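ok trying this again, last paste got cut off
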Amino acid sequence: MKNALEPIIFFGSGPVAAKSLELLAQHFVFEAIITKPRAAHHTGDVPVIAVAEQLGAPLLFASTKQELDDVFYDYKPRSKVAILIDFGIIVSQTIINRFALGIINSHFSILPEWRGADPITFAILSGQKQTGVSLMLLVPAMDEGPLIAYDTYDLPKTITAPELTTNLIYLSHKLLTKELPKYLAGSRGVTPQEEMTNRQVSYSRKLTKEDGILDWSKPADQLEREIRAFIEWPKSRFQLGDSSAIVTQSHVLDEQGHPGRRTIIDRQPAIYCREKTLVLDKIKPAGKKEMTGQAFLAGYKNIFLGAQAARS
């Protein structure tokens, strides 16, 4: 059932935004949807555009902060509030001021923990046991606005970044449908981040391709988290002969050896790390499909071990 409150405006560009928009459309009506335009050479669907067209909602496009300012030079929103999820463009204070109740950013961490570009990845990398979603009023400073509400999510030990993303999308949806009507009705105020959540400030960053190189001088526990966090990009990889192979699943054994030395343990490829040992459960060699560790050894054992002696 649609919420009886007035229409709102939605800012979003990526796949997280598209799924969020699709869910929110079950409860809210949108005055407009603001997103990035289709890239010049892109021929497939653009998720947010596709959802907006299905909804029949007006679309407005911007690729940069200046283009966004230009859009709002001519466009005068009727909505008192906007929602921003996975947008990727800086929003100026001038635009924020166009909304009597501001712009609500659904941020996928418990702020002020993991401000910045990639809170989901860094929640996994840090090994923390809990993350969540924060509803924050947008301000010009990066993720420093006061909170309307937040909710928590307990991290399973083997969760990957795509799985966590999906779960937080649904948590965000639940939180917005519960708290946005209260905020619009004036029965929900805002609170500084540290006062509401009692979390410490930390910052995530954009990943680079180099982050995907498995470094055996790190503890195996850290590398196992990297594999789960980087499974979509930049993908965790190691040198295999003249090419590389991507590790898509692993586990840690409490065994010690020289960091970087390759071996076989219980018919599985394994590599000693600074602390403990990383067993490679699933691997994707260059140009091949993903395979189990045992299947990998059937075709790549000699390349994997090189001159090293295997033990089984």
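PB: full thing came through this time. The chain has two domains: 8-197, 209-305.
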